[in-house]
Amino acid sequence: MVKRCSVVGCGSSVGLHSFPLDLEIRRQWLRAIGVLENSQLPPGAVVCNQHFTRDSFANMVEFELGYSARLRLKREAVPTVALPRIRCSPPTLLPHHGGLQSEVSKLNKR
């Protein structure tokens, strides 16, 4: 089975990067692509090069000159390019409802 980018609407199968092991950076990736919980991702989920800025890569110059066959992300890189417009956000307190409600569920009630 061919792996594809996990960003909604992308589906690229080229230049794929696995989610980081560092929990904080991983959370940032999940928020960036609009996923609230790790459990929503399939095993082996990946994000492609198209969602990172040039300065996210540790070896961009070497890659462009042909000295490296694959781009390597810096440890702190987070996807910020060509992401879905609707992102999930953490629950917010809505005083007029008297409880917690996520932004996603507010959108669903419209």
From TrEMBL:
Recorded superkingdom: Eukaryota
GO molecular function: DNA-binding transcription factor activity; RNA polymerase II cis-regulatory region sequence-specific DNA binding; zinc ion binding
Keywords: Cell cycle, Coiled coil, DNA-binding, Metal-binding, Nucleus, Transcription, Transcription regulation, Zinc, Zinc-finger
SUPFAM superfamilies listed in its UniProt record: Glucocorticoid receptor-like (DNA-binding domain)
Example of a GO biological process term: endothelial cell proliferation
Main localization, broad class: nucleus
Function: DNA-binding transcription regulator that regulates endothelial cell proliferation and G1/S cell-cycle progression. Specifically binds the 5'-[AT]NTNN[GT]GGCA[AGT]-3' core DNA sequence and acts by modulating expression of pRB-E2F cell-cycle target genes.
Name used for this protein in its record: THAP domain-containing protein 1
Source organism of the structure: Nothobranchius furzeri (Turquoise killifish)
Upper taxonomic lineage: Eukaryota, Metazoa, Chordata, Craniata, Vertebrata
